[in-house]
Design a protein that fits this description.
Radius of gyration: 17 Å
Number of strands: 0
Shape: globular
Number of domains: 1
Helix content: 55-70%
Order of helices and strands: HHHHHH
Structural class: mainly alpha
Number of helices: 6
Length: 129
């Protein structure tokens, strides 16, 4: 009986992992990034940081205990914002990714760009070079 139960939980575990990977793939594609980046372990964080407009060196912070939790939550909040979602949605992405990533991936949410991106020049202003 325990072997059957163990097999069941193993199948559910891998199904949840597959769902999150497929969802991340779709979110990356919505942001104009390569979807396959979702399956590469550290590089997927580099891509998330690019999507949210944060410096890539933040990946180093993900290796520091306790700091990594704060950075991940902040990154997911920003990821929610660049798709027009609330900060609460970002917290949900941090703590329940198997629920919130599919919602983001398969909803009509659109990538609106990183908040730290430079604003467009004022009308009549010379172009920035």
């Amino acid at each position: 009986m325990s072997a059957i139960l163990g097999c069941f939980f193993t199948i559910v575990y891998f199904a949840v992992i597959a769902l999150v990977i497929v969802s991340m793939w779709k979110v990356f594609a919505k942001a104009g990034k390569p979807g396959w980046a979702a399956i590469i372990p550290i590089y997927n964080w580099v891509v998330i940081l690019e999507i949210i407009g944060k410096p890539v060196w933040w990946v180093i912070l993900l290796f520091i205990p306790l700091v990594n939790i704060a950075i991940a939550i902040l990154a997911f909040i920003e990821l929610a914002k660049v798709f027009g979602k609330s900060p609460g949605f970002g917290v949900g992405m941090a703590f329940l990714p198997f629920v919130f990533f599919p919602i983001l991936a398969f909803s009509d949410a659109r990538y609106v760009g990183a908040s730290s991106a430079m604003p467009p020049p004022a009308p009549g202003a010379p172009p920035i070079q």
